[in-house]
């Protein structure tokens, strides 16, 4: 993902960049899969989708929505999630190959929701720079859309962890995120390339 320094989600970024990118990845995988089947190559046609923050920095996976600008639209609360963000997370939930969030920095709000939608999550260990996962809406008075409620209730089975996420807006360190089952692996290093490389090792 690359949209400014902290890869915030906007309608344009989702509809003009992320959704077409997902279509391109699926199309490429299907072409390879069909070719492998035609060649009777049992090992061919495998694939994994890896989502990583801007690769030239190690501060942000994504800082979530471009909230201050999005809420200027009077139709934001009725249109943005049903028409823009929910189709993105639905696409990830139904993607035909494994999905990995390679979390190379702070993962806040909607970015946390996006990462939770992925099948696997790999995160920097924070040894060279702080990195947190946090649903921080409670700290600035923004409510959760119903889609976020459904996502986290489905993906986080421990009610104590869910309470810390939703009611406390807790900032999970990488070690805390691993202990809570929010991420699958931690990686020592400070670049997206290192994380993405390790993410491939946990893909199918």
UniProtKB/TrEMBL annotation:
PROSITE patterns: ENOYL_COA_HYDRATASE (PS00166). Gene3D superfamilies: 2-enoyl-CoA Hydratase, Chain A, domain 1. Pfam families: ECH_1 (PF00378). GO terms for biological process: fatty acid beta-oxidation. One of its GO terms (cellular component) is peroxisome. GO terms for molecular function: delta(3)-delta(2)-enoyl-CoA isomerase activity. It comes from the Eukaryota. PANTHER family: ENOYL-COA HYDRATASE-RELATED, ENOYL-COA HYDRATASE_ISOMERASE FAMILY PROTEIN. Belongs to the enoyl-CoA hydratase/isomerase family. This is Enoyl-CoA hydratase/carnithine racemase.
């Amino acid at each position: 993902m690359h949209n400014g320094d902290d890869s915030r989600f906007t309608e344009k970024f989702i509809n003009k960049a992320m959704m077409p990118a997902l279509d391109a990845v699926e199309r490429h995988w299907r072409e390879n899969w069909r070719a492998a089947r035609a060649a009777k190559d049992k090992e061919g046609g495998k694939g994994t989708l890896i989502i990583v923050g801007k690769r030239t920095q190690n501060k942000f996976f994504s800082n979530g929505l471009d909230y201050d600008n999005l809420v200027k639209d009077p139709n934001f609360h009725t249109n943005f999630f049903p028409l823009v963000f929910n189709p993105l997370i639905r696409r990830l939930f139904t993607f035909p190959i494994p999905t990995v969030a390679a979390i190379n920095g702070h993962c806040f709000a909607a970015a946390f929701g996006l990462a939770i939608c992925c099948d696997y999550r790999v995160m920097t260990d924070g040894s060279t720079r702080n990195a947190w996962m946090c649903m921080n809406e409670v700290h600035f008075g923004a409510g959760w859309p119903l889609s976020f409620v459904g996502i986290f209730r489905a993906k986080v089975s421990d009610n104590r962890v869910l309470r810390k996420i939703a009611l406390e807006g807790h900032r999970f360190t990488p070690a805390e995120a691993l202990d809570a089952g929010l991420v699958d692996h931690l990686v020592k290093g400070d670049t997206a390339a290192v994380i993405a490389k390790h993410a491939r090792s946990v893909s199918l």
